[in-house]
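Table S2 (text version). Query chain:
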Amino acid sequence: MPPPSDPPLDPPPRKAQLRRTIRNMRRAYRSLFALIIVVLGGWTLLDAARWPDLNVDQRLLTVGFGVSALLAFVILRMMEQPIGHELRLARLGYVAQGTIVTIGPPRGRRRGVTITYSFRTVAGATLEGRCVVPRRIAVVTLEPGQTLEILYDPARPRFNKPRAWLAYVEFGDVRKHA
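Corresponding structure-token output:
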């Protein structure tokens, strides 16, 4: 039994947005990390302005604040990257029919199953992709030779993902909740 079928997608650019819970969580993380970056970065800049007057302990603390602000910025960017990739795929990605080539054995503590699939781009190139099956999709419903809808970035086809595997986005108009 294949995964539940969704209605066909419009050609790009299409309407897609982050799921409500992801949108709220993203907003909360952005606010928290922005606060950390502004406070620690501000202390660093204020102390850097009077660097010659600081003793060794104060200088080390200033460097620590600067490194912490930089680390918070890097972590925020790393958290945003998968969400941004998936949203870009949903909005601008081309749809291709793919075929499951292999289903790997369960691995790791969570028993994640990796599938390998192949698909053909609009340019005519045949590419292979690999993806871990999300836990919400029953692995027993998948079998080699089964077709999947694959979304891929036309500028960089190596960025691809089966449509059913998209976890952060939903397609269609934004729904207003009262």
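Notes on Table S2: The mean pLDDT is 87. The longest strand covers residues 94-103.
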